[in-house]
Amino acid sequence: MKLQTLLSYLHDFTIYVGDNPTITSIEMDSRQVKQGSLFICVRGFTVDGHDFAKQAVENGAVAVIAERQVDVNVPVVIVRDSRRAMAVLADAFYGQPTHRLHLIGVTGTNGKTTTTHIIEHIFRKAKKKTGLIGTVHMKIGDKTYNVQNTTPESLILQKTFKQMVDENVDVAIMEVSSHALHMGRVHGCDYDVAVFTNLTQDHLDYHRTMDEYRQAKGLLFAQLGNRFDHRRPKFAVLNQDDPASEQYKHMTAATLITYGIEKESDIMAKRIDMTPSGMAFDLVTPYETVRVKTKLVGRFNVYNLLAAVAACLVSDVSLSTIVESIEEISGVPGRLETVDEGQDFAVIVDYAHTPDSLENVLKTIRQFAQHRVYVIVGCGGDRDRTKRPLMAQIATQYADVAIFTSDNPRSERPEDILKDMEDGVKGAEYVTIVDRKEAIRYAVEQAKEGDIILIAGKGHETYQIIGDEVIEFDDRLVARQAIKERKARC
Q1: Pick from 419, 377, 411: which is nearest to 396 by CA?
Q2: d(CA 52, CA 55)
């Protein structure tokens, strides 16, 4: 595509007169630039793309998009907001791929990963080829790729959607983070269904207040568009039991579909029965009511299932297919995932890293715990400090033994993070072990028959961030090794 043709998609009075090279790719990382690339200078949290414009040109960039003049010998197009321009240009360059996909976005504090995985499973059961973008990984059909962010930058997103279109994907399902919505990463994504799970405290280091956080989540519904199109209707799937849904109802012109347990909703769960091995409930829909059994556990997973059911029903998946799929689903990596080496106590790994999610998981475990419950928990560095004492309070309230340890301390001293946690539980009993591996080993050594150990906070993650270093660390592998070592000594 010619540069002038690509620039014609920018309608913010960007004026450019000059050469018209052929653009063969668009890049925001100078290291990825090759001959024929258009390089976009984006300001990040730690680096500024403008500082790498020369390197990009040396690597083959034939034009640059920037917010200020840069000293290079190729055409430079000045825009007011390079990140916003990047979304427009990427959408155009890759042929507006989301116009050719059935796109479902899921936002909320907790439950995004589980809900998207359930939706994916249902569509695969319905014989649809799926694409998935989220916290754990990205998938196109059966192929899996690593991801850096829950919701990638717009350039990566549009390139990924183009790949999905090229590989004949029918339905794309993605997690949509509040950061991505606020930063405009999903600008240009033509969603057909937007799903809201819940809103609880998280990311206040970025959004500052709960009002700002709630508003950021609501952008997904506001961006569904204001046009009614019978051939391609838009749907907002909202958790009726969460107060934030009332605001989101006023932010969208899309058709509203509600789900819930407490308040009257379009999709509901009634007569919920829970056991350590699963749940059963009456799934109430506008079509009929059916008794559903699932291997998932926890009231929060009932909400995740209801959200997925609603998203799939409005996407024309039959209720019978949905029910069959729900009964097959066994779980999601790092979400109430068990580590079993034949030991006589249970070890569960979960991504719970917010006060609400930790409380939900511990309450669920309490429902089937017969003996002591251990919880190993920490808090991330360079993130919302106000939730640290709350996490500690919940750990000591619902567990018999609370063990405070490191999560991803990043640039902070782990000891300082732990002190913030301890400030919330003065007078309570707990154990502090800075080294996460040692904390897991301690719990495994202490556990007796019938006890349950919850390792919270990192879930599926296979790394730990200490300072500027990213080291290999997987709670599941560390726990498994600790169990093996204990059994070897017995």
Answers
A1: 377
A2: 5
Are 269 and 241 in contact by the 8 Å Cβ rule? The answer is no
Cβ count within 10 A of residue 287: 9
Evaluated on CA atoms 38, 39, 41, 45, the torsion sign reads: positive
Alpha-carbon distance values, 42 to 28, 93, 218, 476, 483 (Å)? 7, 18, 25, 37, 47
Q: At what angle do helices 319-328 and 112-125 cross, to 10 degrees?
A: 120
Task: Please give the Cα distance from 424 to 441 (Å, whole number).
Answer: 25
What digits encode the pLDDT tens for the residues 333-371? Answer: 898 888 989 999 999 999 999 998 999 999 989 988 889
Q: Which of 342, 344, 420 is nearest to 377 (CA)?
A: 420
Question: 265 and 240 in contact (C-beta within 8 Å)?
Answer: yes
- In total, the chain counts a number of residues equal to 490
Neighbouring-strand partners of residue 471 = 464
Cα 87 versus chain centre, distance: 20
Closest CA to 352 of 300, 315, 308: 300
Q: What is the pLDDT of residues 313-339, one digit of tens each?
A: 999 999 999 999 999 998 888 988 889
Token representation of residue 55: 């390197």
Query: By CB neighbour count within 10 A (0-12 exposed, 13-18 middle, 19+ buried), where does 25 fall?
Result: middle
Report whether 195 contacts 310 (CB < 8 A).
yes
Q: Which amino acid is at 490?
A: C
Among the listed residues 386, 266, 317, 358, the one whose alpha carbon sits nearest the alpha carbon of residue 120? 317
Query: What's the CA gap between 354 and 108, in Å, rounded?
Result: 12
Q: Give the pair of three-digit tokens for residue 468.
A: 């500027």
Strands 143-145 and 138-140: what pairing?
A: antiparallel
What kind and span of H or E run contains 443?
helix 436-446
d(CA 452, CA 400): 10
Whose CA is closest to 220, among 311, 353, 300, 322? 311
Range 347-370 burial, b when 16+ CB lie within 10 A, else e: bbbbbbbbbbbbbbbbebbeeebe
Predicted confidence at residue 17, as pLDDT, reads 75
Token match 């726990």: residue? 479
Cα dihedral value 28, 32, 37, 42, nearest 10: 10
Query: Quick check: 439 and 376 in contact, CB under 8 A?
Result: yes
Model confidence pLDDT, tens digit, residues 258-300: 999 999 999 999 999 987 778 999 999 999 999 999 999 889 9
Question: Rounded to whole angstroms, how far apart are CA atoms 197 and 205?
Answer: 21
d(CA 50, CA 482): 48
